[in-house]
Write a structure and sequence with these properties.
mainly alpha
């Protein structure tokens, strides 16, 4: 079996949005933020 890894690799739009939402919550409410 061969596995091909695409370059560049990245996150889908949903993951990027989730990371952005967590960063906004950290700025607004401070740590800890539970996800």
């Amino acid at each position: 079996m061969e596995i091909f890894l695409a370059k560049p690799r990245g996150f889908c739009a949903g993951v990027k949005r989730a990371i952005a939402v967590v960063n906004q919550a950290l700025k607004k409410y401070g740590a800890p933020v539970y996800v």
